[in-house]
From TrEMBL:
Pfam families: 4HBT_2 (PF13279). It comes from Roseovarius faecimaris. Transmembrane segments: none annotated. PANTHER family: PROTEIN THEM6, PTHR12475. The lineage of its organism: Bacteria, Pseudomonadati, Pseudomonadota, Alphaproteobacteria, Rhodobacterales. SUPFAM superfamilies: Thioesterase/thiol ester dehydrase-isomerase (SSF54637). Gene3D superfamilies: Hotdog Thioesterase. This is Acyl-CoA thioesterase. InterPro entries: HotDog_dom_sf, THEM6_lcsJ_thioesterase.
Length: 178
């Protein structure tokens, strides 16, 4: 089940937080609850992706993106993700989530999110490819930034992000066509 109540709580909690620039980092605190765990009594890998929404949506709100999407009747979709899992998160463990936009290109925005344990270890890290959409398809990130009154010039794309994009482009689509 989608964590609607937790999402509403995060939006309420951060409603008066300082606005962020496009590449600002949103930091939030969360707990791994019993319905987030798997048979091994740790945060389920799929649930991790769902919980990352609890950081991305408030981030989009704080940067002004949510208001822009509503005004234009645009949507926001995920077009890819790569996740590294390195440390277990157990039931009732508190974690810090960090969410930020890294860069963008002609079609997509690239975001990173991470979950940090109390001892300072990074438990997992995700790189997302996201797109703004309208009834005709993808809206260029530069168009959205211009409407927000911001510079549309993207920051330099990190080499590891560019390498992920290049590697992902080599995957066949549609997949499993033998």
């Amino acid at each position: 089940m989608y964590p609607v109540i937790r999402m509403l709580w995060q939006l309420y909690k951060h409603r008066k937080s300082e606005p962020l620039p496009p590449t600002g980092t949103h930091v939030s605190q969360h707990y791994c609850l019993p319905w987030d765990i798997d048979l091994w009594m740790e945060l389920n890998n799929g649930r991790t992706l769902t919980l990352y929404d609890l950081g991305r949506i408030p981030l989009a709100h704080r940067t002004g993106l949510v208001g822009l999407l509503r005004r234009n009747r645009w949507g926001l979709t995920m077009a890819g993700v790569s996740v590294r899992y390195r440390r277990r998160i157990h039931a009732f463990e508190k974690i810090e989530m960090r969410s930020r936009l890294i860069c963008w290109d002609e079609k997509f925005m690239y975001l990173e999110q991470s979950m940090w344990k109390k001892n300072g270890d990074c438990a997992n890290h995700a790189l997302y490819r996201s797109a703004i959409t309208d009834k005709n398809g993808i809206v260029r990130p530069t168009e959205a930034l211009k409407q927000l009154g911001l510079s549309a010039d993207p920051p330099l794309m990190p080499k590891w992000v560019a390498a992920w994009i290049a590697a992902d482009a080599t995957r066949p689509w549609p997949p499993m066509q033998e």
